[in-house]
Hints:
By secondary structure, this protein is α+β, with helices and mostly antiparallel strands. It folds into 3 domains: 33-101 and 139-248, Alpha-Beta Plaits (2-Layer Sandwich), CATH 3.30.70.20; 267-460, nitrate reductase domain like (nitrate reductase domain fold); 468-522, no CATH class. The protein has 26 helices and 14 strands. Strands 12-1-14-13 form a 4-stranded mixed sheet. The chain has a two-stranded antiparallel ribbon with strand order 2-7. A hairpin with a 5-residue loop joins strand 3 (66-68) and strand 4. Helix 7 crosses helix 8 (168-174), helix 18 packs across helix 19 and helix 21 (404-425) packs across helix 23.
Amino acid sequence: MRVMAQIAMVMNLDKCIGCHTCSVTCKQTWTNRQGMEYVWFNNVETRPGLGYPRRWSDQDRWRGGWELTKRGRLKLRQGGRVRKLAEIFANPVLPEIKDYYEPWTYDYKDLTEAPLGDDYPVAQPRSLISGEPMAIEWSANWDDSLGGGPELLGDDPVVRKLRDEVGARVRLDFEQSFMFYLPRICEHCLNPGCVAACPSGAIYKRVEDGIVLVDQDRCRGWRQCVTGCPYKKVYFNHKTGKAEKCTFCYPRVEVGLPTVCSETCVGRLRYLGVMLYDADKVAEAAAVRDDKALYEAQLGIFLDPADPEVRRAAERDGISHEWLEAARRSPVDALIRTYKVALPLHPEFRTLPMVWYIPPLSPVVEAVSASGHDGEAAGNLFGAIDALRIPLEYLAELFTAGDVLPVRAALDKLAAMRSFMRDVNLGRVPDTSVPAAVGMEPEAVEAMYRLLAIAKYEERYVIPTAAVADARSLEESALAEGCSLDYDGGPGMTGPFGDDSGRASLPLVTIENFHAARRRQTADREEDA
């Protein structure tokens, strides 16, 4: 057993309202510069829908992630070394700008400087890439709130697969489908395809916290990583000729602050914490033959931070006491491993993703209530789950490679929690048979409710600060040597860690400033900050 630690994220889809605040704040922090106009490290998709880039989950087309050989060995779907060498100067399996969208602006001067007259001035859209006039035909948000619409529904890869496998029932159900929102960032996988695909070794997975980053100095712009990532969360900056991706806001995480998307999330649907896993079992878990067994296989590599044997092995492998305590209190560990209500996104890609999702339940309650029945009663809810207007098969294709049972189990637990806690909050005698029906104790249901419904800031984000000393030394080395991203307008010039960071000519933002900001953000009263 070789114990390693990873900072992971869970998103509760029941709470996402599709406001895109996370996308905008991430955009302003990390991709608001030339060459990155089309890039969204964080985006929120409507499901059912095509996503961004269009049909990104169709790996028959994009060749991302891993597949098994006849001998049961893992290999990249995009091909081996010989094929990559043949295509290294012209990779044919890449999304084009039309698959993302051509970013644009408007001739605002035509509005602000137009002379008085009888006609209304018009601001013509212009491409931010070529500067030429353009017709707007697509964007990263084009299918927002159009889930189930006939124009887009048929091209959703999951819907197409379900229609082939399940038949007319799904086709009829989807004509009256509800929609839900799916926020997406880089999955920071345990077995990342982008890392294996990079010919220059520029993409790497950090040992200390599992965050996957791009070394801008080593990147040669081959773009093999874009193909290798099945989630299409690696992007090419056409101005710098480098690949860029979500950094999991590592300058913030290193000092115990949550990612920008988590910090600004209106629905408070994101959770951050430490997961312990056995690194010796990663390859074995990713190579399980049955796609439907991949979810359980990944669960099997996670370790219990309260187990004395695991703690001894972790200390032997260099994991500090502070990280172990953070893992023990981790909300992510509780939702993934203890309560088992969080599920991975497309485990069949075999990258072992570390951003997990709690499937949505809200429309069930609304549908039951609309029929004149008690929408929060356990019996009604349990029965309604089987009659979801969006089939369980759709959620299963997203989160468990088509296995309906884990999705049904997660939704049953969420339904039981709603019914049980309604009685508690209304002062009634709760029915203990409700949690028993889903294999939980009443105390566990109340603990899960606290985490999902009323958890405070410090309960949702349990991030160890043991890396503070390392962060300080890294900041000092940046002062002496300069930052590899410190080019004009680059992310080394500004960022979520202060406008001064990354420039040797300016004073550094100290680590203490991070924690002063954290106190301001988490204090209940201004005088406590």
